[in-house]
Design goal:
By secondary structure, the protein is an alpha/beta fold. Helix content is 42%, strand content 17%. The strands form three sheets. It has a seven-stranded mixed sheet with strand order 2-1-3-4-5-12-11, with helices on both faces. The protein has a four-stranded parallel sheet with strand order 7-6-8-9, with helices on both faces. The chain has a two-stranded antiparallel ribbon with strand order 10-13. InterPro entries: Bact_Solute-Bind_Prot2, Peripla_BP_I, SBP_2_dom.
Length: 347
């Protein structure tokens, strides 16, 4: 069934001449260990797509961190005749052949959050190197006046996620100049909290309890595993940073077990991606949604929108997370954290 303007709102400029003959938009997310995908990304995109295109059907799958499974999901969408696919790749380096083959068949692939290799039509994410810089500066600030004399452990993200490399690069650009030394560093496959826990335990064994002064964790999920390892060894008051403003991370911040996280507003990222997908589905311009361009290893000049982020600490949770209605005080301040919340002025 052809889509009409009355059904699909104003997702972009132009007319409906290039609209797809079916009403399906694919949405493929990489994993469900990180709480954001099922809690925020998926429902936000599905809601926005429906708002712009009431007749559109979102064909959703989660790959559970399995690249082969995601390829099967992607190929199935193409076989079903889906002409627009939002792809958050498990392994962005593995997607080139399937994205290129789909593009040859007229399928528009929107790379979401991670810049998938291949002939993608657009990319929506954050300025990930700058996020790494924020993480590095957050650690320096948490270390305070003694940062120059401090040794830091770095637990980085998955080596198959191009964002992880950018976070690491950005963090190093700050830490290498402003702390004494990065004394232990590991990349963690699949962003696994359990593996991060093991590597932190190995770092403690290797360096000794007093051999480091702060721990950089590339995200909040891994920070949870790291925090557990620190507690098990009886290590307290060591700055620990994360990313994603996950509920558990925010609760650790309130309690004092984590120093900061990086708050990336998911709603604008998800809604812009949905708007681009609907516009592409209708054959319309995406210029107003993707005002800049980026290059991948396999394609130059990809239309893109990159959002910024903020460091969140105990002192500004109220003015960021609560103000933006990401979480309510009641969600953060459960009975287990009531006293800590009261002390932090969250009531």
């Amino acid at each position: 069934m052809a889509l009409t303007l009355s059904a699909c709102g104003e997702a972009g400029g132009g007319d409906d001449a290039g609209a797809s003959d079916n009403n399906m938009i694919g949405l493929l997310l990489p994993e469900n260990k990180t709480t954001r995908y099922e809690t925020f990304d998926r429902p936000l995109m599905e809601k926005k797509i429906k708002a712009l295109c009431s007749d559109c059907e979102v064909k959703y799958n989660n790959a559970s961190q399995d690249t082969e499974q995601q390829k099967k999901q992607f190929d199935a969408l193409v076989t079903q005749g889906v002409k627009t696919i939002i792809l958050d790749a498990v392994d962005a380096t593995a997607t080139k052949s399937w994205v290129d083959q789909a593009a040859d068949k007229g399928v528009k692939v929107v790379a979401y959050d991670r810049l998938a290799e291949g002939d993608v039509a657009a990319y929506v994410s954050y300025d990930n190197e700058k996020i790494g810089e924020l993480q590095g500066q957050g650690m320096v600030d948490a270390l305070g006046s003694d940062a120059k004399n401090s040794n830091v452990v770095m637990i980085n993200g998955s080596p198959t996620d191009p964002n992880a490399a950018l976070f690491k690069k950005g963090a190093h650009s700050v830490l290498d100049k402003q702390v004494k030394k990065v004394v232990y560093e590991q990349d963690i496959p699949d962003w696994s909290p359990d593996e991060a826990n093991k590597k932190m335990a190995a770092a403690i064994t290797s360096l000794g309890k007093g051999g480091f002064d702060g721990v950089y964790s590339a995200n909040d999920g891994m920070a949870g595993g790291i925090s557990t390892a620190l507690k098990k060894s009886g290590i307290k008051d060591v700055p620990l940073g994360g990313q994603d403003a996950e509920l558990a991370g925010l609760q650790r911040i309130v309690k004092g077990d984590q120093s900061f996280t990086i708050y990336k507003a998911i709603k604008p990222e998800a809604e812009t991606t949905a708007s681009i997908a609907v516009a592409l589905h209708q054959g319309k311009s995406i210029d107003k949604f993707a005002p800049t361009t980026v290059d991948s290893k396999s394609k130059k000049g990809i239309p893109a929108k990159l959002y910024g982020a903020k460091v969140v600490t105990k002192e500004n949770i109220k003015d960021t997370i609560i103000k933006d209605k990401v979480y309510k005080v009641s969600q953060i301040c459960t009975s287990q954290f009531a006293a800590a919340c009261k002390a932090a002025g969250l009531e």
